[in-house]
Amino acid sequence: MVKVAVVGGEGIGPEVTAQSQRVLNWFAAKRGVPMTLREAQYGIIPYLATGKVLPDDTVEAMEEADAILWGATGGPETKEVPAAARKAGSLLGLRSKYDLYANLRPIVANPALADSAPLKAQCARRTSISSSSANSPAASISASRAASKRCADGQRRGFNTEQYTTNQIRRVARSAFELARTRQEQGLLGRQGQRAGDQRAVARGSHRAASRKNFPMSSSPISMSTTPRCRSCASPRSST
């Protein structure tokens, strides 16, 4: 039995997690996936009731869970929460506690918005990207420094540094590569397209060299098109 803690949080979080629960319930009912969902609160609502943004029952729910479905934090209403109370139950602290080191962001084009994308519609429809980046690990949270200094000319100079070890970077890269392996079909198509592009480049280079040999006095032996083209499908892109 998979235990899932559902923490809606603040702002748009509860609305998003409510729809996510519908998906989980569908898998449980239609696909027979054994799971139990336990809802818990985070943010201003539990703070007004208990004085904590991360109450004890929410901590218990997350500790017992195999997975945590998290909504969102922040919003205009959260100004009522003092900084000290917010820091005591901060999201950075939870990332450190559960060692959540990889931030995965899948990007899939919505067909209904294809005509609004900067890419041509037929290219945008094929968009499927997964981005992997490093969440702030425990070491960098404790070692992060943010400060500002006043310069001789009266201006202020600010800086913010974080520290990562080799292993912390290595495991994020490994998670990205392992994710890429599951996208074999897309990767294969990409490699085939790259090979085809390399072959075209070689053919253009050979043709260019032959043109220079046949017309040594010409400074521009080949007429190059200046029409902007979409890099995904090589079709002309409108300038409007």
Layout of strands and helices, then pairs:
Elements: E1 2-9, H1 13-30, E2 35-40, H2 44-50, H3 56-64, E3 67-72, H4 83-88, H5 91-97, E4 102-108, H6 121-124, E5 128-134, H7 138-143, E6 145-150, E7 156-161, H8 166-181, H9 184-214
Parallel strand pairs: 1-2, 1-3
Antiparallel strand pairs: 4-5, 6-7
Summarize the structure in words.
The protein has 240 residues and is an alpha/beta fold. It has two domains: 1-89; 99-149 and 156-198, no CATH class. The protein is built from nine helices and seven strands. It has helices at 13-30, 44-50, 56-64, 83-88, 91-97, 121-124, 138-143, 166-181, 184-214, and strands at residues 2-9, 35-40, 67-72, 102-108, 128-134, 145-150, 156-161. The protein has a three-stranded parallel β-sheet with strand order 2-1-3, with helices on both faces. It is globular and about 65 Å long. The N and C termini lie far apart (55 Å).
